UniProtKB/TrEMBL annotation:
Keywords: ATP-binding, Lyase, Nucleotide-binding. This is Phosphonate C-P lyase system protein PhnL. The gene is phnL. GO terms for molecular function: ATP binding; ATP hydrolysis activity; lyase activity; transmembrane transporter activity. GO terms for cellular component: plasma membrane. The keyword Nucleotide-binding applies. The lineage of its organism: Bacteria, Bacillati, Bacillota, Bacilli, Bacillales. PROSITE patterns: ABC_TRANSPORTER_2 (PS50893). Residues 4-241 form the ABC transporter domain. The keyword Nucleotide-binding applies. Pfam families: ABC_tran.
């Protein structure tokens, strides 16, 4: 059964001061089956992040449909979902990890991860316990747990971002270059949690420039150049092109 079906998806952006419209991506078609992890590869500017942001509805698609098999709403077209529906899905079903951290000011790292769980109705003691487990797993120094992340390094912010998204164990997790600024040891921690989430039923769509990281992790790879699902070996050639 398909967890996510992307059909004839397209997205344009208008540059108002130039009175110009640019086609960011078009004619995207692929399906994510239950229990799968699909990796997306392609050159910079090919529209990889646009696809993920449209699924999460940071961007509103211009054409096609994004059919998601929701636990709450059954089959729902994310391109036509109401804002209320999207807020629910982001809170309970769909997670998103980018290389950038946007958080509430004057909120500590521990509070941010706890908040992700409290929003779903977990009691405070569970949120605190799971937050500490997540922060420990991603090797964020305990000295940083009760400080504000505005002064963190890029790698520390990214590890916190991943902890916030994965602690809720979402049904669908979108990964936008989540290992971009991490060292090899931290990348392995991310890999461990992805494998664990996948084993427990989370479905994933991710963008990675690190092809080695993708090997044996993704079930399928979607190539932006050919608009096809391809093997990992072919994906390495596509990413270098």
């Amino acid at each position: 059964m398909s967890m996510l079906e992307i059909k004839n998806f397209g997205k344009q952006f208008t540059i108002h001061h130039l009175d110009k419209t640019m086609q960011a991506v078009e004619n995207i078609n692929f399906s994510l089956e239950a229990g799968e992890f699909i990796g997306i590869v392609g050159k910079s500017g090919s529209g990889k992040s646009t696809i993920l942001k449209s699924i999460y509805r940071t961007y509103l698609p211009d054409s096609g449909s994004l059919l998601y098999d929701s636990e709450r709403f059954d089959k729902i077209d994310l391109s036509k979902a109401t804002e209320r529906q999207m807020l629910y899905l982001r809170k309970y079903e769909i997670g998103y990890v980018s290389q950038f951290l946007n958080v509430m000011p004057r909120t500590t790292s521990r509070q941010l991860v706890e908040k992700a769980l409290l929003e779903t109705g977990e009691p405070e003691w569970v949120a605190r316990r799971e937050a500490e487990k997540a922060l420990t797993h991603f090797e964020l120094d305990p000295k940083l747990w009760d400080t504000y992340p505005t002064t963190f390094s890029g790698g520390e912010k990214l590890r916190l971002n991943i902890a916030m998204a994965t602690v809720k164990k979402p049904r669908l997790l979108l990964l936008d270059e989540p290992t971009a600024s991490l060292d090899q040891q931290s990348k392995m921690k991310v890999r461990e949690i992805i494998e664990k989430l996948k084993a427990n039923g989370t479905n994933l769509v991710g963008i990675f420039h690190d092809i080695e990281f993708m090997e044996s992790l993704c079930d399928k790879v979607f190539d932006m150049k050919t608009r096809q699902l391809i093997t990992e070996a072919q994906a390495g050639v596509a990413n270098e092109g």
